[in-house]
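Lab notebook, bench 4. We co-purified these components, and the gel suggests they stay together. Before we commit to crystallization screens, I want a quick structural picture of the whole thing.
Request: model the full complex, all chains together.
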Amino acid sequence: MPAPEGFRPPAVDDPMSGPGGGPLLTVTGVTKSFGGIAAVRNVSFRVEPGESVGLVGPNGAGKTTLFNCICGQLRPENGTVELKGTTLGRLPTFRRARLGIGRTYQRVEVFADMTVREHLLVAERARCAQGQLLRDLANRSRPTPAEMARVAEVLDLVGISDRAEVPVSALGLGSCRLVELARALVAEPILLLADEPSSGLDITETRELANVLRTLQRERGMAVLLVEHDLHMVAEVVDRTIVMDLGAVIAEGTFDEVMADSTVRHAYLGTSA
Amino acid sequence: MEHFLGFAIPGIPYGCTYAIVAVGLVLTYQATGVFNFAFGAQAYTSAFVYTKLVQNEQFPIWLAFLLSVVVLAPLLGLIFDRYLFRKIPNTNTTAKLVTGISLFVGIPAILPVLFGSQNQYNSPSILFDPNTVYFRVASTPVNGIYLSSVVVTAVVLVALVVLMRFTNLGLQMRGAVESRRLVQLDGVNSGRVIATAWAVSSLLAGLAGVLLAPIYGQLQAQDYATLLVAAFAAAAWAALRSFPIAALVGILMGVADTVLQGYLPATSSLSAAVLPSLPFIVLVAALLLVPGMRKLHDDTDPLSSVDPPPPPTTASLRAPQLSRVIRIAWYVLLAAFIVSMLSWMPKTWESVFNSGLAFSTIFLSITLITGMGGQLSLAQATLAGVGAFTAAQLANHLGLNFLAGAVVGAVLAAAVAVILALASLRLKGLGLALMTIAAALFFDNSIFSQIGVSHGKALTVADKWVGLGILNVDGHNLFIMLMIVLVICVAAVTLVGNGTTGRFLAAQRGSETAAAGIGINITWQRIQVFALSGAVAGIGGTMLVIQQQSVNANQFNYELGLAFVVIVITTGVSTIEGAIQAGMGFVVVQQVLTYLPARYGGNGLTFVLFAAGALTYVAHPEGILEYQKRRWTMRFQRLLFHEDPSSGRPTPPGNGSGHGATSPVSVPSLGGGYSGVAATESGAGHAGT
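Here is the predicted assembly.
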């Protein structure tokens, strides 16, 4: 498949690419059922380093289930998920996160007792935290200037610096989505799984969010796998689009290609017009 | 076969009462989403009133039954629903458990206070004459007690299955348990549906209570607690869903109990260890093996987002000036306390406060596991007992110093807590609460009573085992040691709470999914917090036995474990000061009550007071004391600094702004907030088109 316009091909020795400069994420034949109902059926695709891929489809298509399989929150019955050529297998979610898979959620998942800044500090610390209990007891766990600077940088990037000290319980849905995004970004993921990030945002916020994702992808080479119902945003952000329906991939290509596909139109509109 | 039936048939009445309670638990859970810990207490209340009316007031049996079971029991259920459980959001499992536990602790304690502590004996049977043998099964006589149990159980079971499966009310109950707010939107009076469920399940509790009463010679709350635990196990095997399975397991447990009693040698240690642990073994097996119990996670109410956010802590709302004043006041109070303890404090009160320091250390373990870790453990008294018994065993058998023994005890208690954490890795909320109560029962019945120093009898702590003149009644070494131990534990808990571990635990409390998603190892966090809380509880337990100068199993039984949770939740489980106030408050209230007439003294009324405090958890999950502190802090700040109550927390910019579109719906002036935090800016708002 030709590289889409604006796509930055990774260098051969790019730390984000797999052995020999292969794909960043390879999903092969993933199947997941719930009580006999196949939510994801034999799905396979790849995401190249620094690539932005849209994963779209009607409600119930299996997009979030697929995300959960990639993150390790669900175990697929069949198929494999590889990151940089390494099979993730039974690796738990937190280990996948430390390997560089960041995630935002369809239903907002925030830490109710924390402020926005605390969210980011926790995420920054979680990246490499080991043996923290002894450091706590020795009173050596205070945030370092480097951590504070890193957090401030991400707050600026996402545009929520003015809300840094606000408890998330006092924020609206749109702001919470930005907090989720910032929390995922602070860990410097090599692959961001964004699950309906624009849900609850207004038009201006959605546009700003699209800009952030595009900037991260272009300037920092972060790959993005985007599940989104706002097709304008998808068109603006992604290099390539995968369409799912009833658990299976039904089309793949550039945004314009898949939107012109009759199968896709049928899945969305119930007609082959 | 005849031999077997001879052992099995006497177990049937017990089994039937287990079955009725188990079925009642399943009904309450199915219809209201509440696992009713108060069920045993409700059964005991009906039995108590029934027996008292018949024996003391000479009421006819039918009238006593009518008043105690048909009137009182449903009335209690309706009161619990109306004033307590109805106010708890479906998703708040902890609040439901805490409220049930408060009733479990408070109700049996308040009955002797209200009616006097005279014992009740020989309750009459409700249906058939207990002394008449109606027929024989394989040569085993079947009397009125057996017959009434079986008949009532069969009728109850059939009626419930019909109610839930084939009636409109049953369908509405099953809908209301998911979200009472959602079924209201469908036009169902969910309040009435759930109230009916409470009335029916409470009727079952009352029925089980009076059915069981004639089986026991003497009416004791303890027997009803045991009944409840057996019913927990039966309900767990039914995954809190199936009435027939719950009933069947309940009956089998009753039968297994008497069969094992028959076949195991009466005096063997195996018999002494296995028989009391049967409910524990069955409950743990259900928690580990029944998939439905492993999936008993928090309920998902589609409308849960309308629930208010958790209130901020008082400390986060205080103006810096007021914080300084309060900090200085605390230091002054602490200094005055220390000086008083070392100088003029009467020996009685010095002993009371010393005891309070030891309890504060134990209660810190609850702050760790529940306040910071977000896990409701009901085995903290047991972990304290593990530490205490270890130190006592080492002192008694090896002559090891008690303080060194405390360290070994803390390590062992931490190890037990880790095993508990590993066994309950997939459980949380209700599942974890049941696993920890099962562990507490196991230690009560099979460990503390068997390997306890002097075979479970109290052992006097000898001066030579403690040293440093700590047990010298004329000195203050005990106070100094308890203070040092408490300060070390407070410092450790504070450092952990403010450190990375505390932040990770806060993240985990907020969302386990998101916490794992950013790289936090949830399992490891859980093991760490269990281990730490076990160690702190173990140290506190050892301190308590040094202060009380004796060790026995009753100091650390599972009921105390439940009471401990209730006490700490009353004062505030999320703060360290809450644990210290709980420890001190517990002993001071106990001591003050000794000045009242005898029936009000002892633990009874103390538990009632704290249980009443914990019942406010529904409205104030931060603890009633913490809530009052926040309230008074706001008032002071308004008075002293003329501050707006909401100014303690920053308000997000841009909240409440509309987009100027023409709107078909307009809200002229709406303002609202939670705990001083503005949620809706007052002013005109419009719904977008």
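Chain B has three domains: 2-300, 348-557, 644-651+663-689. Worth comparing against the SEC data before the next meeting. The first strand of chain B starts at residue 120 and ends at 121.
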